[in-house]
Amino acid sequence: MGKTITGLVICGGNIEDYDFYKSYIEEADFIIAVDGGASHVKAMGLKPHLILGDFDSIGEEIYRHFSDMGVDIKKYPAEKDETDAELAVEYAMSIVGCRKIIIAGGIGTRFDHTLANIFLLKKMLGKGVEGWVVNEYNQITLINESIKIRKKQGVKVSLLPLSDVVYGITTAGLYYPLCNAKMEIGPTRGISNEFECAKDTGSFAEVSITAGLLLVILARD
After folding, report:
1. Which of 4, 122, 185, 209 counts the highest number of beta carbons within 10 A?
2. Residue pLDDT, tens place only, 90-132
């Protein structure tokens, strides 16, 4: 089996600590800067493989900087049915062949864009691609089967349904265990669980479901 191709999509949302993203940059095989995300990429000192968008939020200086570097730039019309982030995710999946995609800079002051980026996890999952939306405080993914998570001190684990109902939720290695539980959209039962950190509980926690779509959110204050 070949190596999983990992894509890093850098959007123009809030990024406070560029050093935090070093591990994601090192993991990435293909980096896409999305419109205003090119400013973040320049600040990180990176040369992305691609910049795309309608360029309504990128300055001429940034555009020229990457154009002079020979970076592939794809411009799309401002009036379209997809966000620039969705175009980047689609490119990473269908053209590059990424089987894992990390969206950075996808959480910001525009809650509509933030929520839309989280919804892109469903599009990725539907094509068998592992998707994450991350920032300095949150790592968000979507599952329809199971996930194994390395335990970390000070991290909250929240489980939220994205489908109307999620069935058969079972956890291992969490402080508040679930066994074949059902969750519906509305109640907040799945918020702020924690890792069980006793020595005999292992280094990983697991979450599995039998039906539905479940957001798994790793959050720190």
Report:
1. 209
2. 999 999 999 999 999 999 999 999 999 999 999 999 999 999 9
| CATH 3.40.50.10240 in the chain, residue ranges | 6-136
Q: Please list the residue range(s) of the chain that carry CATH number 2.60.120.320.
A: 146-219
Separation CA 115–CA 109 (nearest Å): 11
Pairing of strands 130-134, 100-104: parallel
Q: H/E/C letters for each residue in 115-167?
A: HHHHHHHHHHHHCCCEEEEECCCEEEEEECCEEEEECCCCCEEEEEECCCEEE
Q: Say if residue 201's pLDDT is above 90.
A: no
Q: Under CATH, which number does the domain 6-136 receive? A: 3.40.50.10240
CATH class of 146-219: mainly beta
